[in-house]
Amino acid sequence: MGGVIALFIVSFMVDWFFNVAAGAFLAVCLLLIWDSLRLYSIGKITAERKAAKILSLGDRNRIALKIHNSTPRVIRMNIIDELPFQLQERNFSIKGTVDSNDNFVATYEIEPKTRGLYEFGNTLIYVQSPLGFAERRCTCETSQDIRVYPSIIQMKRYQLASIEKLQQYHGAIKTRRIGHNYEFEQIKAYVEGDDYRSINWKATSRLNELMVNQYTDEQAQPVYCLIDKSRQMNLPFNGMTLLDYAVNSSLVISNVTLQKRDRIGLVTFGEKIDTMMKASNNPRQLPQILESLYAEQPNEYDANYPLLYKVMNSLARTRSLLFLFTNIESKHHLNRLLPQLLRLHKRHLLVVIFFRNDELEEYAGESAEDTIDIYKRTAAAKLIAEKQVLIQSLQQHGIHAMLSRPDELTIDTLNKYLELKARGLI
Question: CA 71 from chain center: how many Å?
């Protein structure tokens, strides 16, 4: 009898638990259905992407996403913007909450490392249900194509208004002006601090007041950026090629040169001449240079320096300032180029700019652990020392030479331009 009662109780308990579990399961299912129905009845969500018409190479460019919630309730969401493949960003997302009939603005920054067309896709918004059991994907049509140009941001940063401050960067020293190799501007009254050597005695005697001549930098001087596009310029630094750094610097130099009312020209070359623009201070010159620099790509061949000399011989008839962006790696390499560099130097003021290898310098400075390490680091130190030998060799021939870090190329080149202008060498 006791066994029958126990069996009855067990059977009752099993039935009770089953009914409770079935009821709970049904309640959860109904809750899920209700949660999902609420999710698909929320109304419309829209998105708008705001970005500059053109992006700057190697700089942080801000992108803004404006999400508008026209639904009657607060929503939680996960935003995925379809980024261009060049950025190689696969796990990009932004989480946020937006009130009813309100906007949510999400901003992020991208740093393009290559020039060209960047295709942005749609904006995907994953909206969470009120209880968080489900998500709904909303696809907002925001696809657009944006071109990445040489750094417009750097160009604006180094406008002529900030030239005086420019000399203070990176320990640069402002160069004292020598003599009067400048154009006469006007006669003005003497004020304390004016150079007494500029006193105009004829005007002083006529007006019975101390008058001085005021000079301005000689203008309309031709300046050329010569960009070597050979395989040596395809070496990487912080995700960009050396050619990209030369392109960015050339754009900044072009802008400052025009601000100084000098004339600017551009020549890019590899195995052949790809771009040849005669120096001009026409207002349309800078946009043309920008478009040309946008399309420049490195090649896999050695640069044709005899052809460069031939082109410059016909393009620049008068003495010009030439900034040659190249990457000379060895004494043997320099010896092959030196005859053509000397020919250019004979007719023009030539400045050869090539690059420091920071990775090699860092490697050479590390402590060695074994004999092989000692050999490798000694070889690296030898290559670094050879760069200085190259600089000295060019300077011994009277050629101006600069060795610059890629990320400091723009400021170093600008300071060199201002120094040469201040010394009256061009």
Answer: 41
Average pLDDT for 141-152: 95
Which pLDDT band, with edges at 50, 70 and 90, does 37 fall under? low
Six-digit token pair at 219? 């203008």
Provide the 3-class DSSP secondary structure of residue 75.
strand
SS3 of 343-411: the string is HHHHHCEEEEEEECCHHHHHHHHCCCCCHHHHHHHHHHHHHHHHHHHHHHHHHHCCCEEEEECHHHHHH
Share of the chain above pLDDT 70, in %: 75
pTM of the predicted model, to two decimals?
0.79
Angle at 61 between CA 55 and CA 65, to 5 degrees: 105
Q: How many CA atoms lie within 13 A of 65 on its CB side?
A: 30
- Cβ of 124: how many Cβ atoms within 10 Å? 18
Reference 244, options 259, 257, 229; nearest CA is 229
Question: What DSSP character marks residue 301?
Answer: S
The residues pairing with 183 across neighbouring beta strands, listed in sequence order, are 216
Task: Please state, in angstroms and rounded to a whole number, the distance separating the CA atoms of residues 364 and 374.
Answer: 9
Q: Distance (Å, rounded) from C-alpha 97 to C-alpha 123?
A: 16
Q: pLDDT tens, 317-375? A: 899 999 999 998 888 889 999 999 999 999 999 999 989 876 666 656 667 667 776 65
For range 188-204, the mean pLDDT:
78
Q: Which of 149, 154, 150 is nearest to 169 (CA)?
A: 154
- Cα distance between residue 197 and residue 214, in whole Å: 11
Comparing CA positions, the residue from 48, 122, 119, 51 lying closest to residue 84 is 119
DSSP 8-state code for residue 81: E
Question: Burial level of 165, CB count in 10 A (0-12/13-18/19+)?
Answer: exposed
Strand ranges in 229-384 using DSSP code E only, listed in sequence order: 236-237, 240-241, 263-269, 273-280, 321-325, 349-355
